[in-house]
Write a structure and sequence with these properties.
Layout: E1 7-11, E2 30-34, H1 43-57, H2 61-71, H3 80-87, H4 95-105, E3 108-112
Parallel strand pairs: 1-3, 2-3
């Protein structure tokens, strides 16, 4: 889904009864979101991981909203308030929104649910 930067993929967790598969080394621009309970990722889990990435990159919610509007012109009215609601788990994530965030942050986002 998408180009090298701005990719989102979803994967099932490895169940305890399944043999563990060797994990490839993640790309330096890869952000993995894994459910803390091992069952499912919530909107808050995804938001927290992306908020940490924003902090790591020194981005405010306003700057991230501007980047999203730049990489996704169809999201021309994407506001700082929407970014804040998503990062704080107050609004649900959709696949296109996750792709836009990943692209704006220049990361590959892998969500295990």
């Amino acid at each position: 889904m998408g180009d090298e930067h701005g990719t989102v993929s979803f994967s099932d967790p490895v169940l305890p009864s399944e043999p563990e598969q060797p994990q490839a080394e993640p790309d330096s621009n890869e952000l993995r979101v894994v459910a803390p309970d091992g069952v499912s990722c919530s909107d808050s889990d995804i938001g927290l991981a992306l908020a940490r990435e924003c902090e790591r990159q020194g981005l405010t919610t306003t700057a991230l909203a501007e980047r999203i509007r730049a990489v996704a012109p169809d999201r021309g009215r994407f506001s700082q308030a929407q970014v804040s609601r998503l990062l704080n788990g107050k609004q649900g994530w959709r696949s296109p929104t996750l792709r836009n965030f990943a692209k704006a942050l220049g990361i590959k986002l892998v969500v295990t649910y």
